[in-house]
Amino acid sequence: MAIDIPTPLCRVACVLRTRLLSCVLCPLGSLSTPTDGGTPPTATDSSRTLRRASRPVLSRPLTAPAGLDQSAARRWPPFPPVTPLVPGRPQGPCQDREFPPHLLTEASVDSFTSHENRHQSPPEQAERAEPAAQSARAAHRRRRRPALRLGAAVGAGVLLAAGLVGAASAVGAGADTSESPAPAPTAVPAHTLTGYWHNFDNGSTILKLGEVSPQYDIIAVSFASSTATPGQIDFELDPVLGYGSEQEFRDDIAAKQAEGVAVVLSVGGAEDQVTVNDDASANAFAESALGLIDEFGFDGIDIDLEHGINATYMSQAMEAIHAGVGDDLVYTMAPQTLDMQNTTSEYFQLALNTKDFLTAVHTQYYNSGSMLGCDGQVYSAGTVDFLTALACIQLEGGLDASQVGLGVPATPNAAGSGYVDPQVVNDALDCLALGTNCGSFVPDQTYPGLRGAMTWSVNWDAHAGNAWSDTVGPHVDGLP
């Protein structure tokens, strides 16, 4: 008797490279991969406001060339080789200029601090990053097993195969497979205001998700963290937030989505190191991310890995997540300025590898030393030129304007350096989108499709009476 495996499960199994499973269990013609050009069904939310119009649907009509053996074809398209950044000589748009030695001092490199620790005092940072405390938290973290998660041994394909066979047997036996209707996916508008939400207390304003300013179009829940399994991530609510249950948190997510706001899960941050550097860890990342998306109802994933990434395997993981969620996935990232100085850096490679379904790159234009702009000139942080000249590198380096956003701190206390007044942010948006209100740097062309702006964080914004979002939000809405 033939076993009919549901097509979505076949598609995810294929992406996760469970080859034996996909070849034996999936009926001919039902196997769909991210390169087959298929577009998952979408749904619209009639309650969305005109301000949050649906974004275009992206497709990936890539096919492997003839002559590849089966193994190579399964890994098509190949990822481009990554050349390490060479200190002292920038590459890509700045390859013809020497990097000024004073910009590569130890103090300058140390200035590239990350989201969560940049506003804490050294004792607070040491206390929060203490390794033993992290190990204890990981050891006691409650493991979740939502109904739609794939098997834990996804790398080997053993438990995944068993789980799919079990599901198929249940179907064949006439088991009840009806499910409650999935909520309509949250579309994001052409221009977005994004903010990070604290799942911790750091001295700013503690907020429940429902209390976040309505100016934000995308909220990044900070942060999912690593487990003892390489690549695997998990998420737990901090009791300090005052949620009585996880269901209350899920209800807040659903309420925001009903308002047209996308809620994504941010991975990493300052204190945690998620390592994705081989097939097994890439599979573990994708499997656990898909599980958390399903369990909490997140709209997607934000990558904020600040301790180094492997572009090849992180791209592989994101391809698998995209295959599992479809083109409704909201996928953002927040590299630091040094990560986006040239197209050969790992973060830039990740953005280019996944640009067919990437929503936005919000580079952190703060806590940074002076950097080169796309014109090869040196610009100091905290200025309109720093924002525009560095964003130009991405705009000219292969990303679409709709995938480039400006990341800035909401208040002076939110970052160690690089704060700019909200009006300066608006000027930078105008300069790039319209060619007006520029500083000394004027781009060669305008980018009216510019994505918008991001801030660390909605909590620091609330601490200052939402002055940042009330100033920048309406301006983002008014971009062409």
UniProtKB/TrEMBL annotation:
<dbReference type="GO" id="GO:0008061">
    <property type="term" value="F:chitin binding"/>
</dbReference>
<feature type="compositionally biased region" description="Low complexity">
    <location>
        <begin position="31"/>
        <end position="46"/>
    </location>
</feature>
<dbReference type="GO" id="GO:0008843">
    <property type="term" value="F:endochitinase activity"/>
</dbReference>
<feature type="transmembrane region" description="Helical">
    <location>
        <begin position="147"/>
        <end position="171"/>
    </location>
</feature>
<dbReference type="InterPro" id="IPR001579">
    <property type="entry name" value="Glyco_hydro_18_chit_AS"/>
</dbReference>
<dbReference type="InterPro" id="IPR050542">
    <property type="entry name" value="Glycosyl_Hydrlase18_Chitinase"/>
</dbReference>
<dbReference type="InterPro" id="IPR001223">
    <property type="entry name" value="Glyco_hydro18_cat"/>
</dbReference>
<keyword id="KW-0812">Transmembrane</keyword>
<keyword id="KW-1133">Transmembrane helix</keyword>
<feature type="compositionally biased region" description="Basic and acidic residues">
    <location>
        <begin position="113"/>
        <end position="130"/>
    </location>
</feature>
<keyword id="KW-0472">Membrane</keyword>
<dbReference type="InterPro" id="IPR011583">
    <property type="entry name" value="Chitinase_II/V-like_cat"/>
</dbReference>
<dbReference type="GO" id="GO:0005975">
    <property type="term" value="P:carbohydrate metabolic process"/>
</dbReference>
<dbReference type="InterPro" id="IPR017853">
    <property type="entry name" value="GH"/>
</dbReference>
<comment type="similarity">
    <text>Belongs to the glycosyl hydrolase 18 family.</text>
</comment>
<dbReference type="Pfam" id="PF00704">
    <property type="entry name" value="Glyco_hydro_18"/>
</dbReference>
<keyword id="KW-0378">Hydrolase</keyword>
<keyword id="KW-0326">Glycosidase</keyword>
<feature type="region of interest" description="Disordered">
    <location>
        <begin position="31"/>
        <end position="144"/>
    </location>
</feature>
<feature type="domain" description="GH18">
    <location>
        <begin position="191"/>
        <end position="480"/>
    </location>
</feature>
<protein>
    <recommendedName>
        <fullName>chitinase</fullName>
        <ecNumber>3.2.1.14</ecNumber>
    </recommendedName>
</protein>
